[in-house]
Amino acid sequence: MAETPSPDGPAISYEQARDELISVVQKLETGGTSLEEALALWERGEQLAGICQQWLDGARERLAKASGQTDQGQEADSEEM
């Protein structure tokens, strides 16, 4: 189930970005494109990777909130070890 991103978040779902990124990588790996096409694919891949990272960061933040942890709490825990 894809979640609706926040207004500041990505415009496409994690799954859409991941699937398109896989397609971009496959096209780059198979070759047969012009330099200009390869550069455009690379740039799109970078955008898609960033979108996936935004989704993952948001999910990590939500999990931390749901479990009652904050960044400060996690730092304090790691300092005690």
Could you characterize the architecture of this molecule?
- 73% of the residues lie in helices and 0% in strands.
- By secondary structure, the protein is mostly helical.
- It has a domain at 14-65.
- α1 packs antiparallel against α2.
- The termini are far apart.
- Residues 1-5 have low confidence and may be disordered.
Question: In summary, what is this structure?
Answer:
About 75% of the residues lie in helices and about 0% in strands. The protein contains three helices and no strands.
Which helices and strands appear, and what pairs or packs with what?
Elements: H1 14-30, H2 35-66, H3 71-80
Helix pairs in contact: 1-2
Query: What's the Cα radius of gyration?
Result: 17 Å
Question: For the report, how would you describe the main beta sheet?
Answer: none
Tell the overall outline: elongated
Order of helices and strands: HHH
Low-confidence stretches: 1-5
**N-end to C-end Cα span:** 37 Å
The chain-level structural class is mainly alpha
> What percentage of residues falls in helices of 4 or more residues?
over 70%
Number of β-strand runs = 0
Strand content: under 5%
pLDDT averaged over residues: 84
Number of helices, where a helix is a run of at least 4 consecutive DSSP H or I residues: 3
Keyword list:
disordered N terminus, 81 residues, mainly alpha, single chain, 0% strand
